[in-house]
């Protein structure tokens, strides 16, 4: 049965607090603003009139809300709009001259219940320096729905799926920019990320009839992360060379948990909590130089050194609820407790780049990069359940690598209306990894492994731009990318058995990646007010694996096609039209999906479309309407053999709005939107339909 939405004058619409409040406020703002503008025009001589550009400062207020039927969490995630009422200061700007060349500015925004806040101030003088600072916070919404199992129409909403993560930063920076002197800058930043979001690691349920266990129970991640960054830099020009030095110190703290529910509503109903705590200290120093040797040579160089210390702790426990007490914990083979440990990393990076103008039309750019990295890690944990004993375990690893990469780029503009470029990139790397796990109670070695690896990465690309006519141009690029990884396990105590889970990835001897990509683009302006753009991309990739005592096997084949086009047309000065369409075909084939129906062929095919129309109704009124469309149809019901995946969804969104310049100082705007989303992957449990009403008022001064 289709839902009937209320009209503007119906009682149902008036019962929606957000909609009614926004509409009433808009009407009152328009009426009051026009009355005030008429009074101001009557009192002020015509000679004193100013244009909108004459006012440097402004305050813009906004209020609105959404009226929704269906899954609010899905709507919020897809449209990035809050379900309910919101409002506040949409935009604020104030600036004031300080002395002859100084400028003080304040910008702000605060949309309450949207968790969208920002405040920025700056005091700048180009001959002395600057002071800046501010705070920002934004929210991303997530849908905590789990999976849907078609057989029996099984859908398990085990908690409120309306999830969100807040991200924010408070910062301050200053710089000393005296003419002819070294430039000094300092910046401090405190960043955070906290809240709850969904995870794709779903729990099992056996409420599937005869189908057995299926992973459809939703899981959530509890996020609490903070980071403090201190940066200091100095830059100076000596002759024809710019030199610089920078320091960075960073501390971070993460206290995250993954919370999984198993078999809800069944006798073996249980919960898993895996807590991961990581504290880090990072120190980095870098130096660079940029030298103009002469008119034909530009040399740049850089060096950085970074050291990173990390401390880890955590546990993975089972029980009758999330994060159970010690007495409530249940035995499980993959649980652990009392995890402590840490790692140390040191990294050196050197960069050299040269731009050589061989002729006025030919430029050669060779570059070299060398990276050396060493790290060692150690950890201890208790594993209180079979197959491990109750003894503590200790693990350690050491990793070293050396990568040397070179690139060569050539640009040529010697042919009229043509630009050619070619680039080659090569990387040769080698490394070693030692791993060990011991039972500290029995002093028995669980596994001991030493692996040497080499890698070779190469990429070649060619491209050209052609301008046959003043209003027509074509561009094309092709590249081939190849990466070869070879592994030699000098020591490996784990048995060569398919059922040995701790052997992965020790059975790998080679892992190779190949990619070919080509794209074409055309831009045509047949008329001064009409622009057409078209683009086609094709990419083909293969992944090959060589395992112990087996021949080389192609593990997957990926094919992508992307076709896109856009149009921009202004029939006359008071009207414009914009449109665009994109079609994507993305498929991954593996031998496994041909052998068993449990594994599906991976598809990510979809297309999107958008259109906009804007019109100047009169000297004071503008109208704009936008439409967006999304469609994916990749769902395949293989529930008899496995878990059906593949996105199948359809979404429409349309917004229309009016802007009315009441006077050079005042502008009033009203926007209405309608959104419709249908999701077959979730058995239509994530469908939604929503109305948006939003109004704003801007005052310049």
CATH superfamily of the domain at 144-393: TonB-dependent receptor, beta-barrel domain
**N-to-C CA distance:** 52 Å
Spatial extent as radius of gyration = 31 Å
Counted by DSSP, the helix tally is 4
Structural class: mainly beta
Strand content: over 45%
Label the overall shape. globular
Number of strands: 29
Weakly predicted, low-confidence segments: 1-23
Largest sheet: 26 strands, antiparallel, barrel
Question: What is the CATH domain class of the domain at 144-393?
Answer: Mainly Beta
Query: Would you tell me which CATH topology of the domain at 144-393 applies?
Result: Maltoporin, Chain A
Q: What is the helix fraction of residues, given as a range?
A: under 10%
Overall pLDDT metric: 90
Give me the CATH architecture of the domain at 144-393, please. Beta Barrel
Characteristics:
Maltoporin, Chain A; two-stranded antiparallel ribbon; 26-stranded antiparallel β-barrel; 68% strand; single chain; mainly beta; 701 residues
Tell me what the structure shows.
The protein has 701 residues and is mostly beta strands. It has a domain at 144-393: TonB-dependent receptor, beta-barrel domain (Maltoporin, Chain A). It is built from 4 helices and 29 strands. β11 and β12 form a beta hairpin. The radius of gyration is 31 Å and the shape is globular. The two termini are 52 Å apart.
In short:
The protein is mostly beta strands and 701 residues long. It is built from four helices and 29 strands. The longest helix has 27 residues, at 17-43.
């Amino acid at each position: 049965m289709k839902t009937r939405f209320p009209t503007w004058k119906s009682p149902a619409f008036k019962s929606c607090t957000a909609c009614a409040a926004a509409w009433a406020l808009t009407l009152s703002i328009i009426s009051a603003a026009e009355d005030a503008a008429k009074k101001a025009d009557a009192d002020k001589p015509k000679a004193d009139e100013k244009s909108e550009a004459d006012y440097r400062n402004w305050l813009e207020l906004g209020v609105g809300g959404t009226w929704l039927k269906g899954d609010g969490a899905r709507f919020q995630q897809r449209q990035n709009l809050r379900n309910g009422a919101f409002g506040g200061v949409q935009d604020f700007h104030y600036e004031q001259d300080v002395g002859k060349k100084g400028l003080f500015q304040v910008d702000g925004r605060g949309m309450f219940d949207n968790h969208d806040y920002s405040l920025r101030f700056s005091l700048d003088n180009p001959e002395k320096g600057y002071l800046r600072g501010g705070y920002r916070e934004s929210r991303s919404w997530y849908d905590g729905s789990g999976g849907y199992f078609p057989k029996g129409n099984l859908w398990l909403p085990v908690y409120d799926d309306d999830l969100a993560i807040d991200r924010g930063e408070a910062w301050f920076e200053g710089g000393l920019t005296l003419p002819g002197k070294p430039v000094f800058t300092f910046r401090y930043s405190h960043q955070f990320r906290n809240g709850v979001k969904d995870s794709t690691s779903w729990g099992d349920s056996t409420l599937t009839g005869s189908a057995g266990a299926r992973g459809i129970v939703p899981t959530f991640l509890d996020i609490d992360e903070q980071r403090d960054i201190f940066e200091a830099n100095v830059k100076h020009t000596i002759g024809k060379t710019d030199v610089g030095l920078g320091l960075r110190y960073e501390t971070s703290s993460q206290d995250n948990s993954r919370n999984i529910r198993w078999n809800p509503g069944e006798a073996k109903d249980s919960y898993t909590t895996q807590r991961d705590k990581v504290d880090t200290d990072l120190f980095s120093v870098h130096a660079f130089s940029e030298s103009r040797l002469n008119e034909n040579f530009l040399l740049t160089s850089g060096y950085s050194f970074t050291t990173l210390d990390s401390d880890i702790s955590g546990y993975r426990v089972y029980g009758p609820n999330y994060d159970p007490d010690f007495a409530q914990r249940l035995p499980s083979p993959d649980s652990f407790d009392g995890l402590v440990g840490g790692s140390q990393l040191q990294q050196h990076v050197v960069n050299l780049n040269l731009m050589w103008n061989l002729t006025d039309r030919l430029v050669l750019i060779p570059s070299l990069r060398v990276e050396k990295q060493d790290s060692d890690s150690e950890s201890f944990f208790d594993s209180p359940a079979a197959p491990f004993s109750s003894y503590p375990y200790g693990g350690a690893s050491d990793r070293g690598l050396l990568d040397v990469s070179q690139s060569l780029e050539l640009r040529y503009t010697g042919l009229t209306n043509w630009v050619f470029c070619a680039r080659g990139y090569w990387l040769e790397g080698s490394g070693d990894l030692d791993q060990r796990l011991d039972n500290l109670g029995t002093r028995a070695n669980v596994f001991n492994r030493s692996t040497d690896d080499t890698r070779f990465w190469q990429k070649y690309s060619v491209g050209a731009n052609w301008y046959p006519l003043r209003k027509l141009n074509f561009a094309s690029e092709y590249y081939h990318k190849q990466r070869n990884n070879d592994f030699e396990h000098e020591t490996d105590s784990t048995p060569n058995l398919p059922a040995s889970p701790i052997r992965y990835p020790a059975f790998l001897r080679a892992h190779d990646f190949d990619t070919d990509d080509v794209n074409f683009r055309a831009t045509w302006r047949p008329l001064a007010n009409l622009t057409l753009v078209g683009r086609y991309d094709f990419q083909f990739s293969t992944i090959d694996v060589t395992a112990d005592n087996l021949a080389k096997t192609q593990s997957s084949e990926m094919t992508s096609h992307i076709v896109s086009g856009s149009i921009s047309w202004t029939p006359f000065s008071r009207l414009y039209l914009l449109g665009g369409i994109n079609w994507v075909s993305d498929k991954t084939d593996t031998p496994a999906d041909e052998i068993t129906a449990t594994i599906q062929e991976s598809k990510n095919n979809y297309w999107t479309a958008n259109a906009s129309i804007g019109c100047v109704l009169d000297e004071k009124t503008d109208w704009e309407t936008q439409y967006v469309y999304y469609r994916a149809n990749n769902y395949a019901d293989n529930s008899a053999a496995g878990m059906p995946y593949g996105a199948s969804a359809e979404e429409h969104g349309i917004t229309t709005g009016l802007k009315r310049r009441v006077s050079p100082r005042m502008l009033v705007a009203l926007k209405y939107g309608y959104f419709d989303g249908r999701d077959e992957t979730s058995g239509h449990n994530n469908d939604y339909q929503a109305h948006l009403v939003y109004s704003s008022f801007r005052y310049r001064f």
